[in-house]
Design brief:
The structure holds 2 protein chains of 2 kinds.
Chain A (H helix, E strand, L loop, with lengths): L1 H13 L17 E7 L3 H11 L6 E7 L3 H10 L7 E5 L3 H6 L7 H7 L8 E4 L2 E17 H7 L7 H13 L6 E2 L6 H13 L17 H14 L11 H9 L5 E5 L3 H5 L12 E4 L13 E7 L7 H14 L14 E2 L11 H8 L3 E2 L6 H11 L1 H4 L5 H19 L4
Helix pairs in contact in A: 2-12, 8-9, 8-14, 14-16
Chain B lengths: L2 H30 L1 E2 L5 E8 L2 E8 L1 H10 L4 E2 L13 H10 L3 H9 L2 H33 L2 H16 L2 H11 L5 H10 L10 H28 L4 H9 L4 H29 L3 H5 L9 H10 L5 H33 L1
Antiparallel strand pairs in B: 1-4, 2-3
The chains are: A alpha/beta, B mainly alpha.
Chain lengths: 414, 341
Amino acid sequence: MTKSIRGLALSALLGTTMFAGAAYADCGISAGKVSIIGNDFPAIHTVVNAAAGCATGAVEVKSNLTADHQKLNAPGMTANPAEYTSAVVASSSIVPLMSAGLIRPLDELIAAHGADIPKSQLITIDGKVMAVAFMANAQHLFYRKDLLEAAGVAAPATYDELLAAAEKIRAGGMATPFCSTYKAGWNLGEEFVNTYLGLGGDFFKPGTAEPAINNENGVAALELMKALTGYMSPDYLTFDSNIATAEYEAGNCALMTLWGSRAGALMDGKDSAPGVAENTVAAAAPSAGGNSFPATTLWWDGWTVATNISDEDAVATFLAMKAGTAPSILTADTMGQAVWLLDGYTPSPEAQGISASIAGGARPYPMEPYMGAMHTALGDNIADFLAGKEDAAQALADIEAAYVTAAKESGFLQ
Amino acid sequence: MKHKTFLWFILPSATAMLLFIALPIVSVLIQSVYAPHEQVIREVESCNVFGCTKSTIIDVEATRALSEGAPMGRFVGAGIFTDRSHLATDEIAEIWSASPGVGAFLSRVMNLPFYGALAFTLTYTAFVTPLSILLGFAIALSVNAIPRLLRGPAIFFSLLPMIVTPLVGALILFWMVDARGILGAVLQSMSGDPDLSIKASTPLMWIMLIVYGVWASAPFAFVVYYAGLQTVPQDTLESAMIDGATRWQRLRFVIIPHLLPLTTFLLLIKIMDNFRVFEPIVSFNAGAHAKSLSYFIYSDLSSTNQLLSSAAATSVLTILGIVVLLSPVIIRTWKSFGRTA
């Protein structure tokens, strides 16, 4: 009796972070501790819930899924033994962990336990597998087919066509036909990254941390962004994904570039004004500057294994995460949550935008260790140009100067 | 009080201040003169689901070897303080020699991140401190003048801005001044300009942040003054009335001098608070138009590549700024204490 009460109290105590492990799936783990940190969205919940199915009496699986994961994962994995045995990361957030040596190469674990993981999922850096990707993400175009038809324009494939379409829709009476995430800071920086890479630019002189954005592609990217802001709400510098989603769902814009991972929410008809969700189409990001590929960056999400843990925990973590991203997690419910990179995935209409952007040859988000400093410098220095306080050359000079200062402090530049 | 008794009396709070205020300041100071080691980078090929690309990575082994020799990092002295993100001494010298006039010089200096942020922080402090104290005093006088029965509700409503969580209060105003919000739409129709938006205009954004700051911090001044008003000596007031003093003269020559020590206290507290302005900038998404010193520290610490040394240097400069701003008030208080003693 006392024992069962104790067990009850214990499970109530741990209930917030530990899973009951009702499934008791046989993941082949004999013993060990698995602790996962990652971002908080449905697809990651699916993965972590499946991994939690590996929990047994000898195997503990817990997780911490939060939007603040990037602030927590490095400190939590620096300790020895690490608090987190696995971090679910994206293209950019793997870099700080790898730079600090906090995640281990997975080659030995794959040879021993993961021969069946498809090669295409492996993230290989310098010949070593550092992560296993399970989904793809990208910002791309959403449009309202009813409004485009009414204005007599075809779905835009390039930014020039998008500007022309926006002009026609505005003539029809919609004041702010275009929505995007131009909030000063990370979001605005990301928009520049998409546009600049789409124009064919590169951020750094090859093989060095020297910035290389003060050129005609940089000017063209800024000019294009400024042209787009002419069709946005005057409050565009405060627009993040949540506000852009709300504006679009309220029927205030006909064209929008937004993260593919939001497609499910945009097209499910919940919270939308009548006629919005059913007329929404997800398409590839428009291309820019006469290039044939979409002007967006491709992102992957994947899982890693911490360095500072025992080999037993590393094996347990590897097997649990492998089970969490096994093709069997794909069901009718989970199929639409993401563009899964797993065998057996069939794209839904919501996934069209990302799939088409990948197929169109969009470029991946840069993985240089100093790209974070560049992204911050971009996010902090473009607003002055968009608001008309300085010209494009001055904005680009400011960005490079801010980046060089940060890169010098971090030790990337002398 | 005997010296020994006094010593024992303040020992607990002195210990707490040493541990939680003095030591962190020392640690921040040390942090600000060190920067991370040089990063050893090399070019590698990285492959993922989207294909293979040439990229660079940090050589973890080589970088670790560097940091094991000197775990504090590189000693850079005042290097962080004088770089472009802080005092920007080189840039200022260059701008000075290149600018034709003072106006051009100032506008180019304001383009440097630290001076732009300092300009907003000082403007905010200069307006919000006196305005919130004046408004709080006015509310306290009016609440003190109304019938006793109504005072309870009046006090409650006057305190509301302080009761409402700052983030929530700011968000409510943020939605009201949206281009589609009630205040934003009124402004547009009054000016006849559909593109006019508070969130898109730097001067309007500054005004809104200042209005919010006054709204949010007036209740504190009100509570302090209201308490002070209850201690105004009634016999002095009555004798002033018998002498034929008008309402204004009583206020000017009895009440205000009586409340002067409270005003000094409020000034000290409010200058410190306002110089560290932070929450409204975050909740108004105002980062594009107004940055404060605290906002700088926050963005240095929350970016993907944490800039600890830069954040530490900004913290030290913020502390110095507060010391400079407070010194007139503190010297004044010191002198007046010297006179009475």
